[in-house]
Amino acid sequence: MSTDYFRIFGLEPGFRIDLPEITDKYQHLQKQFHPDRYAGKSQQEVRLAMQTVSLVNQAYETLKSPVARAEYLLQRRGIDTSGRDAINRDTDFLMEQMQLREQLQEIHDATDPCSALDQLARQAREHSAALEDSFGACFTAGRYDQAVGELAKMQFFAKFLREILLREEELDH
Amino acid sequence: MAYSEKVLEHYENPRNVGKLDEKSANVGTGMVGAPACGDVMRLQIQVDDNGLIQDAKFKTYGCGSAIASSSLLTDWVKGKTLEEAGAIKNTQIAEELALPPVKIHCSVLAEDAIKAAIRDVRKKRGEIVE
């Protein structure tokens, strides 16, 4: 089996993926290499099957997440994905992130924290979706410098969304 | 992860949190971010006519180590010249706070922030042209 995460699922490498299709193939592969099917087989065969399952899991987790998928696409081309310089040149973006974090911090004081949180989450998801589209376009066009910048922004919004989720859990309790 | 006592001390009791007027001619603002962990840091310095840093403020959204690094650095730069402040290395911050290897990047973020703030105020004072 190929060790390339896209080839494992029989795909051409690219940012756009069909997640339900990959999930189907993932479940199929998991069944195919399940340890139960290796009863009575040699130790080497069992070990190989276990390694395959672990590789398939890793591939699925990576492709499932837009940020991890974008990182993987760039890294398999040998591109540095740290994005530090790109983001530090974009003061406006950092300022906007600061404001979003401030809004999140002040959400407890809102008259209706739940709906304020929903609105913030919706806004963040829209931004993320737009950045993902932009990343896909840059990557396809071979504009890798720009793609690294878009990935960095996706990472900030992913972190922001995780923090929104934590707040939602706090409010639920 | 276990934080060092010094990190916890700064985290629980951060120095110099706040904002300076970024439009002021003697205030320099440095905004930096770390994509891998999504941390955002704003560090500001206010410089007097002799080029000494009178005041420093920060706001950091990030982990305890990032907050402690910026808190410590704002304390350190007060009373220093821009040259002296710009010479502070992230390794000094990491050492003082006993940061573990996985948190070294937080001290790098703080160094990037002070450098950006110094560049900003120098530009405003006409000391550098970009």
- Specify the helix fraction band of chain A: over 70%
CATH topology grouping of the largest domain in chain A = Monooxygenase
Number of distinct helices of chain A: 8
- β-strand amount of chain A: under 5%
Q: What quaternary form is this? A: heterodimer
Count of DSSP E strands of chain B?
A: 3
What is the largest interface, and how many residues per chain?
A-B, 19 and 14 residues
> Roughly how many Å apart are the termini of chain B?
42 Å
Q: What structural category arises from helix and sheet content of chain A?
A: mainly alpha
Low-confidence stretches of chain A: none
Helix amount of chain B, in percent?
Answer: 40-55%
What's the gyration radius of chain B in Å? 14 Å
Share in β-strands of chain B: 15-25%
Number of strands of chain A: 0
Q: Strand order, main sheet of chain B: write it out.
A: 1-2-3
- Give the uncertain stretches of chain B in residue-range form: none
- In sequence order, what are the helices and strands of chain B, one letter per element? HEEEHHHH
Give the helices and strands of chain A as they follow along the chain. HHHHHHHH
Distance between the termini of chain A: 47 Å
**Structural class determined from secondary elements of chain B:** alpha+beta
Cα-atom radius of gyration of chain A:
20 Å
What's the quick description here?
By secondary structure, chain A is mainly alpha-helical. Helices cover 74% and strands 0% of the residues of chain A.
